[in-house]
Task: structure prediction
Amino acid sequence: MTVKVGVIGTGWIGAEHIRRITTSIGGAEVVAATDIDADRAARAVEGTGARVLADGTEVIAADDVDAVVVTSWGPAHAESVLAAIAEGKPVFCEKPLATTAEDAQRILDAEQRHGSRLVQVGFMRRFDAGYVQMKEVVSSGGIGAPLMAHCVHRNPTVPETYHSEMAAQDTAVHEIDVMRWLLDDEISAVQVITPRPTGNRFEHLRDPQFMLFEMAGGARVDLEVFVNCRYGYEIGCEVVGEEGTVRLPEIPGVVVRNSGHRSTPVPQDWTTRFAAAFDAEFEAWVREVAAGTPTTGPNAWDGYAATVVTDAAVRSLHSGGVVETGIKDRPAFYA
Amino acid sequence: MTVKVGVIGTGWIGAEHIRRITTSIGGAEVVAATDIDADRAARAVEGTGARVLADGTEVIAADDVDAVVVTSWGPAHAESVLAAIAEGKPVFCEKPLATTAEDAQRILDAEQRHGSRLVQVGFMRRFDAGYVQMKEVVSSGGIGAPLMAHCVHRNPTVPETYHSEMAAQDTAVHEIDVMRWLLDDEISAVQVITPRPTGNRFEHLRDPQFMLFEMAGGARVDLEVFVNCRYGYEIGCEVVGEEGTVRLPEIPGVVVRNSGHRSTPVPQDWTTRFAAAFDAEFEAWVREVAAGTPTTGPNAWDGYAATVVTDAAVRSLHSGGVVETGIKDRPAFYA
Amino acid sequence: MTVKVGVIGTGWIGAEHIRRITTSIGGAEVVAATDIDADRAARAVEGTGARVLADGTEVIAADDVDAVVVTSWGPAHAESVLAAIAEGKPVFCEKPLATTAEDAQRILDAEQRHGSRLVQVGFMRRFDAGYVQMKEVVSSGGIGAPLMAHCVHRNPTVPETYHSEMAAQDTAVHEIDVMRWLLDDEISAVQVITPRPTGNRFEHLRDPQFMLFEMAGGARVDLEVFVNCRYGYEIGCEVVGEEGTVRLPEIPGVVVRNSGHRSTPVPQDWTTRFAAAFDAEFEAWVREVAAGTPTTGPNAWDGYAATVVTDAAVRSLHSGGVVETGIKDRPAFYA
Amino acid sequence: MTVKVGVIGTGWIGAEHIRRITTSIGGAEVVAATDIDADRAARAVEGTGARVLADGTEVIAADDVDAVVVTSWGPAHAESVLAAIAEGKPVFCEKPLATTAEDAQRILDAEQRHGSRLVQVGFMRRFDAGYVQMKEVVSSGGIGAPLMAHCVHRNPTVPETYHSEMAAQDTAVHEIDVMRWLLDDEISAVQVITPRPTGNRFEHLRDPQFMLFEMAGGARVDLEVFVNCRYGYEIGCEVVGEEGTVRLPEIPGVVVRNSGHRSTPVPQDWTTRFAAAFDAEFEAWVREVAAGTPTTGPNAWDGYAATVVTDAAVRSLHSGGVVETGIKDRPAFYA
Result:
């Protein structure tokens, strides 16, 4: 069975997902798409055979749409996800699931009323080969019980539209999800520390930021977010346990020896760095949707948790102090 | 346009390519397949919608088959490739293109008579990210003119059916192709040296073997083939130039620190090691077939050269001495 | 000229320094030693030709003692250092220079009254090849202005006598010194965070500890201190600047490939890890003492700063909050 | 006891060893030196207190000379070593022990007549931490029985006086010794292959050279000698055994991330690369001489074997073919 996908929002990431479903994975095709800019939608589906519809409601309702991909702008995500749930269709939503805890809660409520899980959130790192290996090591007890983790998240540069709160909302949100998953625990408190800012940034931006997370079980996670690091895109992660540590591999590259050095190129953007993870994420989603079973990737609860923790990080950025996330207990539905 | 593919031979690698075309890449579907064991063919296409045909002739002739994948056993390759050329259909042939230089020559002749290139040979390493980076470094002059290259090709173990000549025919053939490509030169002579054999092998097998290749331009390539190395599957390559060297990256894996060591898992088989390369190989082939242009991957000339060099290596294995490959001049058609 | 050294305190580290001066470096010899346990002193100088004296006062006063090494227990350091200054003799004092800020201040005062620098403190990391390379990169502007640094300091285990305050006093004190030196800045504030403790420790010990340092110029340094990490002794450090980062090399070791992994042994103790640094430290000190010029290693001001910051870290361990170090302005004498 | 050393030959390496004995290690002092250029000898011992004598005979005979270091030019080594044996004094001889097999044989004969071992040859690699670890792994069976080894020996450049035979005599001689030691076997045959030469060399020089060694037990060793590699000084070695492999560590250096790369400086000369090995070599020699026991470093037999194999390599360079070394059986005296 080929899964027929409708896409809501055809900006950069939406167009990329259309390309991916069409070219880089098998088992699915895009049959409908929409965007607030209809021309942009038309360009995004060119050559795929998909049609452009008026809005997300039409996409979700279309008879030949088996499953929905939501890649509109963040504040519009929750409405589309709720509509897909109402229609009983599997929905893949790019992060964030919702921009407010209230909206995220409405999704949790709706999905539980529906009675089975329909929502997957686009935290692709859980499908990255390196993180998958880390998860296996941690889960198998290879390093004992986790006590700490050290993370870095670096971009070479960001556009002027990137503002200080996005360090949590757009950037750290990936570590927030992946550390919850790796440590199998919720984040109970956050603190954002602001080192002396780099000169290589737009004036309004606080960069770098150093974030501390306290897990409910007492482990601590620290994270450097540095989005104007200049040299490249790099993600680092080490989990420290009672018996040892496990570290994310560095991205491989040829080793060139010349001019007195041995050197290796560093990826320059996240699309290169996580290309295989995006492919694996969609392959798994399509396979599970085709099988008619709930998808096993990050779910609505994970989306809710990310929103709650991100909010706390933004409050800490402004206050400078430790902020409790106040995350609720996870319903058994999401166990 | 979706490329409709017919597959001849559904043993392990054929079944794997059917799975890959169906699941892991987009833009193509398998519509027909055949195998000397019809049941095996039926199992290989289960769930894909493809039909099983009586033999390769039927597959190649089928109206809805746009392009052919040849994954039968080696001695049968040439016949299928020649038939596909006769039909004017693009054909992807797993290595070897032919098991004799004469058969390879017949393919070169047929393709030139046809007037445009139709044949691609399954040397997937040219699509491996590490080798691609190496090629860019060498081509751009980053290490100066190449003088030497050091290669290792290790398998953890091989079955009893693997015999001493296969070290050249099945194993070293990958380095033979990739070194011709990296150094942009033909191999003029070969010598196979046989170190003391490992005890961890079937009695009949000469393992390891150490091979020396002389390029037409005077560069030298050495290659350790060790197919019972026990610890894992590993490919190593360093090209040494007048100004520096470039080395294939080691396969990344998590770094675990415990019990007094830091350690990283090594891949155990080539399907894992080259999974992304196989995907990239087929994505490119499908894209180029769909575009109606000659494919730019390894072509029939590369298949011919590999056969000629492999033959020389086998003769050297038996004689112990240096064997000239006697490779012809490359026709302008393959420039 | 051979520098004649008197050693005060012949416990483990004192005996090790006697051995080092006698065997591993040239240009110096131990001529006198003392210890509260005279037998221990006798054993420590066995075979060196040095004589055992009654106490530190006698050692410092001895006519044939050119320079003094203080390796008694910490609370006794200040008195010996002050006596050596009074005698006008160069003195190498193991860390800590003093256990209270008041004692450290008395040494600063005495040395300034003396009019030239006589004191070197045993922070050997400044002589480690890796840190020396880091310093060159940072100083030369190779990574731009420093903004952050991430450090880890891990021991496989510690004896029962090691208590929670020693994480700052004995362990973090090395990073406190080396980060002041690398970043060329003073530490203005400290915070100690206590993750869930490991089970592999004596009950009274808080381990691991995570320390945050704020530099006067706004850069931030974080440090994991984990003295029961089990797997080995390891020191990590990365300085992040506006244009790039520089990282301490991992300690080299053979790479063994077997049983599905490639692995490298990790040093198990700091004497192995820093053996070459200790040699270089003493070679430089002896050479400078022989030359009659003030030694250029870490001086009394560095010792004072370490004491002040360590005190602040201990207070933060107890309070959990951020503690200002209240470090004074550096006198021009120590510029 | 301080070992009193006489040095014969105060060129670059002789002066360096005088400095090393005086400054970098303990337990020894230079008391006498000689050189064909008396002024050069005077400069080399300046500040050490040693006196300059007329010739090697005087140095060896001097009452206060306990042990002799021979660092004259190669063809003069044998005479000095024979004289030291005649005097019954321990002698450390820089490589080569002798420039002809006949001279080496005379030393073996003389030493056996003397009745105990007096000679150590300056193959410092056996004291390099990386090679020591490799030896432990191989000896402990960690990789099973050795089958192959791959070596590289690269210098950034060489002076015009360096000629093609020196690739074996001066450069490969280090691998010849260390591989005999690592594999615990003699070299029975050699072949030198000459790839297309680099353009970055003096016209008369054949560079690079690729050498193949056959061990008596059937293992094979290959070695790239490339003395104009431009980028730095680098030594590589991997031993491949029946159960795994062990590889010499790369020389550590800071990892700098900037300008799109992560890079590490490579040492530029062998004095830096092997500084710690030279120190360890002399510390061990001095300690063993002081103890009055035969030194356990590379002995006269090792010096003989290196000369025999080097000769064979030179013959192969000229003939292009495989040359048997014709090495004799090792006398029990050297077991």
Notes: The radius of gyration of chain D is 20 Å. The first strand of chain D starts at residue 3 and ends at 8. Residues 155 and 233 of chain D are 5 Å apart (CA to CA). Residues 300-319 of chain D form the longest helix (20 residues).
